[in-house]
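Worked example

This section walks through a single chain of length 121. The input is the sequence exactly as stored; nothing has been trimmed or padded.
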Amino acid sequence: MKNMPEETTNPQPTGTQCDPGDVQENKGITVLSYIGILFLVPLLSKKDSKFAQFHAKQGLVLFIMELVLMVLMVIPILGWIIYVVGIITSLIFAIMGIMNVVGGKCKELPMIGKFAGKFKF
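Given that input, the structure is written out below as tokens.
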């Protein structure tokens, strides 16, 4: 019977878990990713952290969504309704994102998380 090769440990995040050292070191600043324009802080200051970059890019998508909602608000009645629903959704996504940061997870936000991967900085 041949010896089976041993599985090597993968240093990249698997599933929803990120590198524990990266998470511990950058958790505090990464929370800013989901607070409006403050996503720029981890995006620009923690370029070497995959954890911070992952969440900062999601914060960027969330911020763009909020800007689009503000533009739609100029449309009477329908735009206002879209704005209110969108802002509530944005708040829920921000809370989910902050919970993922605190939990040390690299988990995409529903609906908008897939767009964050398109940004290459």
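What to look for: The radius of gyration is 18 Å.
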